[in-house]
Structures are given as structure tokens and as C-alpha cells.
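User: quick one, fold this
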Amino acid sequence: MTVVLPHRTLPDEMAYLLPTTAPDVWRAAVARAAQLLAPSWDERPNGLKALAFILLTLSVEREQPPESIPPAAVAEALSDQGEEPHELSRRIEAAGTTAGVLGNGYGPDTLDTLWTDLKSWQEAPGDPMGDAEGWPPALWAAVGRLHERISGLDEAVIRRTPVPVPSPGALTISVGRYVSVVSTDAIRPIKCDTCDGCEGGSLRVDGPAVTFVCAEGHTTANPRLDVWRVRNALAYAGLPIGADVAVERDFLVTSRPYGAQSDPRYLSRFTAALLA
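Assistant:
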């Protein structure tokens, strides 16, 4: 059966940025960013992420709630940044730390990983050792695109634009047998870091993070798991994306090196045949 994956909507992208522990000011920044982008949403997730961090920064610097920051102020902040907005990055980090959004370390319930992904140079394709220069930070490209879009906004239109409501960001997927990550050369179950258990348990999705909870209740944050691949695995399995989902047998998730749209069912059949 062919499965057509649903588009990643603006509410979906909002949910990805909103772990349950996110501070209120960050939630307000994400909501305002979504409202500003709603009239011309183009499915570029880095735009929403970058704009939320910029609105958070302006909120702290201007001592205003994010929802009251006018588009003109955002456009001004985006102007004259040049191709390498280092000063903007510095301001975001300072404001994020002041607001308690950044500076909390790296873990499944922090936002520092989101910011690091946005500001860091990307590894060049086919260069696992990281010797090549790679791609510029996603923030740089996002700033240019956002300036074009925000500068053309009509404030009257924005005032009439409803604030989008995020999709459910916290999911629990109970699994009867194994959570297995599939690549072209292996099908490997996720194992508990504490007791080495891998049968039964559940996956917990919370904003940008996904963790494995074994049958004994220990929590493991495994880098092989990715939120969007987990969500897509639910769609391929014909299961609804709701707060609580049950999978009776194995739950197959595509490995990170493969596109998030890859079907783990077909990949697992190919791998199983190859290993036979």
C-alpha cells in the first residue's frame, strides 16, 4: 500500500519548537512568529525557528511581550545584517540566556540544540570527517528570506490574522516488541542505556526530542532517533498522530542518513533480503 505523507504544516512546525518545559516567553515568540508567517507560509521550517529567536531577542531588548512586537521592528532588526549576521547571533544568545531559553545545556528538554542547529556550519555532503568547509548556517539564509517577507507585511492584515494553534507536540508511542532503526545494511533495535533492555517500552516525543523508555522505566536519548522520522513512521504504519498511540509489534523508524520521507517498511524488506 502506498502511503502519501501529510505536509508539514505550520502548526506541525510550531509543535516541533515547543517542548513541554519551554518558558512562556518562548511559546509567545513562536506564536508571534507563526502569525507573521501564516499569510505566506512556504514550509521552510528554519524560517519559523529563526524568526522565533529574533522575536525573543527583540522582546528581551525592548522589554515588550513578543506578541506586541510590530513587523516594522522585526524588519529593521533583519536589515543591514549582511551575508554573515554574526552580531545578530550574539544578540540572540544574550537574550536567550537572559530569558532562560538558552544556556540550559543539551538534553531532550532544552532548546539549546535547536539554536545550535540553526547557527552552526553544516557538514559538507560526503565528508564525514568534517574537513571540507561545508554549508553556511541555516540562520544566514533564513535572515535574507525573512527580511523580504516581513518587510512586505501589512500590519492591518497581521492584526486580522489568527494566531495558529500548534499541533500536539507531546506523544507517547507504546510498542509491543522492538523499536528498530532501519538502514540499508542493518535493522537494529534501540536498547536501554541502563539495563540493555529493548523489548517493549515506549517512545516519547516532546517537541524536538524523542526518547526511548524501556519496559523497566529507564529513559534513553538515542541519537539514532529523529522526531520527524518517528512521526512519519506512524503515518507509514497507518496510525494516527495523537497523544497516545499503541503499536502491537515492531515499530520501524528510518535511520538519520536517509531522507525523512523514506518508508522504513520498504527499506527493512530490502535490508532483510540483503542480509539473508
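User: anything notable?
Assistant: The chain has a mean pLDDT of 85.
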